[in-house]
Design brief:
The complex is a heterodimer of chains A (363) and B (256).
Chain A: H1 2-16, H2 46-56, H3 69-72, H4 120-123, H5 125-129, H6 142-150, H7 153-162, H8 172-184, H9 192-198, H10 207-217, H11 223-226, E1 248-249, H12 269-272, E2 281-282, H13 304-313, H14 332-343, H15 348-352
Antiparallel strand pairs in A: 1-2
Chain B: H1 10-16, H2 20-30, E1 35-44, E2 50-64, E3 69-74, E4 86-91, E5 101-106, E6 113-120, H3 124-127, E7 144-145, E8 150-151, E9 154-160, E10 163-169, E11 193-198, E12 205-209, H4 210-219, E13 224-225, H5 236-241, E14 253-255
Parallel strand pairs in B: 1-12, 10-13
Antiparallel strand pairs in B: 1-5, 2-3, 2-4, 2-6, 2-9, 3-5, 6-11, 7-8, 9-10, 12-14
Chain lengths: 363, 256
């Protein structure tokens, strides 16, 4: 072991002579919550999170300088946007709704329908480099974009602090690592529901919200079957998780089509090529759902009332439809209770947290 | 023409194995015929329609007049190729350079060949690593295929009759792929194109024929084919031209 001691000593001595400090990020979680998983090669530090915050809000990261991550992921909308579907930096339309970025540190697989995107680092490649459609449009403009960042004194310091030991600091790999680090810190655990559920505060929810929660969890409505667990989504992983459910579902939002329509969105099928995956999508988190309208993968439902109407109807006919989507009827009071419960998932502290907001230099 | 010594039988090899040095000497004596060579690539057709034409090549064999294949080893240390994979760039952004050759070594010497075998694609072991730290030529963002966790093998962006049309081919059905955990099994549709062409590979040019792609673009009912090759009518004709459909010979490549 002596060589390890020698190594530690030499690193320590090197640091005395001026190496920057990497400060481990301290999670702020409800009591007893497991810590999120962080990839071994991208330890979460305060410095990376701060660099990532700057990059997240920086339009220079898109090839034509018109769009930042934050352009489609706005804090006031729980890091989603009000548009039904996203539009990329060159004006190309995306066919899907921008997903909210809430507790993604616990998310086991990313996008609306993908079974293999397991880390935020991997996911950020899609908006950065994707070309069908173009989002940030970085492909083919990598050096141009990195040169813009290298020319900025603020970034020189931020990269130095975030990656003090890297020989080359301003690289897309480090950009992806910093963006992933920032996005991992976007935790929402201060909603009235959280105070009721995890801090034992009986007064945090109204009587109507408790009735709505019980409806949400009931076998009559079956909402909680897919919107399950503390993230209201089955795709959850953390340090102690041993099993992650592969939970993609057919809701019957659109009727089943035997013939293949070019350009249509068939969800997971596009990734796996398995016809049984046709029209399967992930059940997204419902945290801050009141603020992330419009809804569904294509943004086709404008309000939560519309969403309840849709699930109450039982959806369109589809051979792969989830057996839990079978329709229900609600009294006016029950519907209001359910809506009130969904609004208890709104976390004002998350939506207004200055740590998640644009740095002054990007305002 | 320099010829390799007669093939060493497995039995002989077993006898020779204990004397590894001797075996190596025998094998490398074949290498005395090895010669530096270049495989050239080009377009057959109206190049003006091509906005982007790029593809990766992972193996090349030169076929002699007896039908025997001889490896063509890729030269290393270039932004365009390493010993495992090479990028050919026939058309693209006018402000960036093109690449029309693969440099390497013809292990069978410079003699008479009657054909070439190529595998278009990226080796499975390399295809699913983190592209942001991948060695050249797998560092090209235009060829990233992140939604399938890999690289495009062939990218063809054409402008035909005033309409942009794209055919992007790569491995699909890689559902277990992840930057940190490469898929344990090959993808459901690897889509590596193995092609064999007649001609003299050290004299002729491997040409990508645009006519099947232009015809596919004209018949396609949609502007993009980037997956669902077997199901999407927008992909049907282009995919058939690749030779990946059982029973349908490829019509994209010629050696001339």
């Amino acid at each position: 072991m002596s060589w390890i001691r020698a190594l530690v000593l030499s690193v320590a001595l090197a640091c005395v002579s001026g190496c920057a400090r990497e400060t481990p990020y301290q999670w702020r979680l409800p009591p007893g919550f497991p810590q999120p998983r962080v990839p071994e090669d991208n330890a979460l530090t305060v410095e990376k999170v701060e660099l990532g915050r700057h990059l997240f809000y920086d339009k220079r990261l898109s090839a034509n300088g018109t769009q930042a991550c934050a352009s489609c992921h706005e804090q006031s909308h729980a890091f989603s946007e009000a548009a039904a579907t996203a539009t990329g930096s060159t004006g190309q339309k995306h066919r899907r709704n921008s997903m909210a970025l809430v507790n993604v540190a616990y998310t086991a697989t990313f996008t609306w329908a993908h079974s293999g995107l397991n880390t935020v680092e991997q996911h950020v490649l899609l908006p950065l480099f994707g070309d069908k459609p173009v989002e940030m449009g970085a492909a083919g403009h990598e050096q141009e974009i990195l040169a813009r960042i290298r020319g900025d004194a603020t970034y020189d310091e931020l990269f130095d602090r975030a990656f003090p030991r890297a020989s080359e600091k301003v690289t897309f790999d480090n950009v992806a690592k910093a963006l992933a680090s920032f996005v991992r810190t976007l935790l929402s655990f201060h909603s009235p529901f959280d105070r009721y559920a995890y801090y034992g505060d009986d007064a945090a929810l109204t009587e109507g919200q408790v009735r709505g929660m019980n409806l949400f969890m009931s076998e009559r409505l079956e909402c909680a079957h897919c919107h399950a667990g503390f993230n209201f989504s089955q795709f959850v992983t953390h340090e102690s998780a041993t099993v992650v459910e592969r939970a993609f579902h057919v809701t019957g939002l659109h009727p089943y089509s035997e013939t293949y329509v070019s350009g249509a969105d068939y969800g997971l099928f596009a990734v796996t090529g398995d016809v049984n995956d046709k029209d399967r999508f992930k059940a997204p988190t419902l945290r801050n759902i009141e603020r992330s309208a419009p809804y569904m993968h294509d943004g086709s439902l404008k309000t939560l009332d519309d969403v309840i109407d849709f699930y109450a109807s039982g959806g369109q006919p589809h051979p792969g439809k989830s057996p839990f989507i079978k329709g229900f009827t609600l009294s006016a009071q029950e519907r209001q209770d359910l809506l009130d419960f969904l609004s208890s998932l709104t976390d004002e502290r998350f939506l207004n947290n200055p740590e998640f907001a644009a740095p002054n230099s990007h305002k | 023409m320099l010829r390799c010594p007669p093939r060493i039988s497995t039995g002989t090899l077993l006898i020779l194995l204990p004397a590894l040095a001797l075996g190596t000497a025998l094998l490398s004596s074949c290498g005395t015929g090895a010669t530096s060579a270049q495989i050239r690539f080009g377009i057959d057709g109206d190049a003006a329609t091509a906005k982007a034409l790029q593809f990766y090549v992972q193996t090349i064999e030169l076929v002699d007049e007896h039908g025997q294949p001889h490896p063509f080893r890729f030269a290393v240390e270039s932004p365009w190729q390493n010993e495992r994979v090479a990028l050919i760039d026939l058309a693209g952004d006018p402000s960036t350079p093109r690449r029309l050759v693969i440099d390497g070594t013809a292990e069978g010497g410079a003699g008479a060949y009657s054909g070439i075998r190529l595998t278009i694609g990226v080796p499975f072991e390399l295809n699913h690593a983190n592209p942001l730290t991948a060695a050249a030529p797998l560092d090209r963002g235009e060829m990233f295929w992140n939604w399938q966790s890999g690289h495009k093998f062939l990218r063809a962006d054409l402008a035909v009759a005033g309409r942009d049309w794209s055919f992007h081919l790569g491995s699909t059905g890689c559902s277990s792929a992840s930057a940190l955990r490469p898929p344990a099994q090959p993808c459901a549709e690897p889509n590596e194109m193995r092609i064999e062409l007649k001609g003299n590979p050290l004299r002729d040019v491997v040409r990508l024929q645009l006519s099947p792609l232009i015809a596919a673009a004209q018949s396609a009912n949609y502007v993009v084919c980037t997956g669902d090759y077997a199901h999407d009518p927008a992909c049907r004709d282009a995919y058939a031209a690749t030779g990946l459909q059982p029973g349908v010979p490829q019509s994209l490549w010629v050696l001339q």
